[in-house]
Write a structure and sequence with these properties.
The chain is an alpha+beta fold. It is built from three helices and seven strands. The longest helix has 11 residues.
C-alpha cells in the first residue's frame, strides 16, 4: 500500500483494497466543531449529515427507499440536541422522522 503525505488542513480517505485518495483541503474549524459541542454542515449530502447525527443517538437511523440522499444541507446544530436536529433536517427535505426509543429512528 502506498502512503500519502498530508499537509496542514488536508485529509485523505482509505478504503479496504484500494489506494488512499489524493489529499483534499478541509476546513478544520468545521471538522473539529464537535469538540465544542457543535456540528456544522456546509453543503453536506443529506445522508452524510444524518449519519453524522446518528453518532450521537442510541438508535439506528433508517431511511425509507426513494429519499434523495445526496441533497446538500447546511446547518449548525448542538451535539446535545441531536434528536431535534434529525427532525429539523428531515423537515428541510419534506420528510418526517419517527422515533421508536431504544430501537430506531425512521425517516420517510
Amino acid at each position: 500500500t502506498r502512503g500519502v503525505e498530508l499537509a496542514a488542513h488536508q485529509q485523505t480517505v482509505y478504503a479496504e483494497g484500494q489506494p488512499p485518495r489524493r489529499p483534499a483541503q478541509v476546513d478544520t474549524e468545521t471538522q473539529l466543531a464537535w469538540r465544542r459541542g457543535r456540528l456544522i454542515f456546509d453543503g453536506l449530502p443529506f445522508s452524510n449529515a444524518i449519519a453524522e447525527l446518528g453518532r450521537y443517538v442510541p438508535e439506528r437511523i433508517v431511511m425509507a427507499p426513494g429519499i434523495k440522499t445526496d441533497e446538500p444541507v447546511s446547518a449548525v446544530f448542538s451535539t446535545r440536541e441531536t434528536l431535534t436536529a434529525i427532525d429539523a433536517l428531515a423537515k428541510t427535505q419534506g420528510l418526517t422522522a419517527r422515533r421508536l426509543p431504544g430501537l430506531m429512528i425512521f425517516i420517510s
